[in-house]
Amino acid sequence: MVSMWHKVAVVNELEQTQQNVTNFLDDLKKYLFDSQQLVSYGMTLIGIILIYVLSRFIIRISSKLVIRMMQTRERSPLKFDPRRTATIGKLINNLISYVVNFITILLILGQVGINLGPILAGAGVLGLAIGFGAQSLVKDVITGFFIIFEDQFAVGDVIQVDAVRGTVEQIGIRVTRLRSWTGEVHFIPNGNIKQVTNFSINNSLAIVDISIAYESDIDKTVEILQKTVDEIAGTNDNIVSEPKVLGIQSLGQSEVVIRTIAECKPNAQVDVQRLLFAQFKKQLDANGIEIPYPKTVTYFKGERGAI
Questions:
Q1: Pair (172, 210) in one structural domain
Q2: Is residue 302 situated within a structural domain?
Q3: In this model, does residue 307 exceed pLDDT 50?
Q4: What is the CATH number of the domain that holds 46?
Q5: Average pLDDT of 253-261?
Q6: 6 and 61 both lie in a single domain
Q7: Residue numbers of the domain that contains 212
Q8: Is the dihedral of CA 210, 214, 215, 221 positive or negative?
Q9: 301 is a domain residue
Q10: Are 171 and 198 in contact (CB under 8 A)?
């Protein structure tokens, strides 16, 4: 008897479950195939497709603009390493892609009826917390991005930041590394770079001042110096234009100073100056033109004098 009632209960439960499933499927069919719901679904799907297509279009257009901008930068007086130019292009493209994709996801979520308020509020609070906790880091990163973007200097350039002068070995998003000519390596946070002087953009100027005695022939000296610099300019690739002997620069207590200038490639002026000093000394000695130096004259009583 108990077994009979148990079987009846099981059968009733199965029938009730089947009826519930049938009712659920009927309600689902009515809901899904309702004309208004179909229109709503269609509009939502069209909106999602339009948002996606528009986002791909924006990313593609921005990528072409970035490529054109990089090509323009390559034709500027300040040249980038091709690898660095490619890195900058990828960085900008990735940044644009991330921003566009994030906005696309938010718009799609809005289309399907998800409330974006809490999401945006959470992102804002997170960004605010990061901003307050890492102000110096954010400043370094932003400054580093603009240093790279504006071509202020590149790897291999000789620059001066405040009292530090050296060759740029690395430009990072956060720090810039300089090596001075004596070997010291300086790590400068990009946020601390307020003013920078770049010595590698334009040609440099070698200035050589030669002192001769008052007794020397000025015209002959100028002629010898001009002939010497003309010969050097013909064989030295660091000199980019015809050097000039300007003439007398100043009159000292025991010497006449004659100045010579030569336009050189960037940062080549020191080597050219050393070469000119050496050749001038040789030619002046060969032509008997005295370069003054301190002398001591001693007079003895009863004699005319001796040197």
A1: no
A2: no
A3: no
A4: 1.10.287.1260
A5: 89
A6: no
A7: 204-286
A8: positive
A9: no
A10: no
140 within domain boundaries: no
When divided into structural domains, the chain yields a total of 4
Three state DSSP letters for the chain: CHHHHHHHHHHHHHHHHHHHHHHHHHHHHHHHCCHHHHHHHHHHHHHHHHHHHHHHHHHHHHHHHHHHHHHHHHCCCCCCCHHHHHHHHHHHHHHHHHHHHHHHHHHHHHHCCCCCHHHHHHHHHHHHHHHHHCHHHHHHHHHHHHHHHCCCCCCCCEEEECCEEEEEEEECCCEEEEECCCCCEEEEEHHHCCCEEECCCCCEEEEEEEEECCCCCHHHHHHHHHHHHHHHHHHCCCECCCCEEEEEEEECCCCEEEEEEEEECCCCHHHHHHHHHHHHHHHHHHCCCCCCCCCCCECCCCCCCEC
Residue pair 169/178 in contact (Cβ under 8 Å)? The answer is: yes
pLDDT tops 70 at residue 302: no
Amino acid type, 189? P
What is the rounded distance in angstroms from the CA atom of residue 75 to the CA atom of residue 72?
Answer: 5
Cβ(179)–Cβ(169) below 8 Å: yes
Q: Is the overall model pTM greater than 0.70, yes or no?
A: no
Which residues, other chains included, contact 38 with Cβ-Cβ below 8 Å and sequence gap of 6+? 32
Verify that 63 and 114 share a domain, yes or no.
Answer: yes
pLDDT in tens, 16-52: 777 777 766 666 666 556 566 666 777 778 888 888 8
Task: Give residue-wise pLDDT tens across range 96-114.
Answer: 888 888 888 888 887 777 7
Task: Tell me: pLDDT of 186 over 60.
Answer: yes
H, E, C per residue of 183-205: CCEEEEEHHHCCCEEECCCCCEE
Retrieve residue 235's tokens.
């064989």
Q: Are 10 and 83 members of one domain?
A: no
Smallest CA-to-CA distance from 283 within 251, 254, 301, 258 is with 258
Asked if the structure places residue 257 within a domain, the reply is yes
Closest CA to 286 of 278, 275, 298: 278
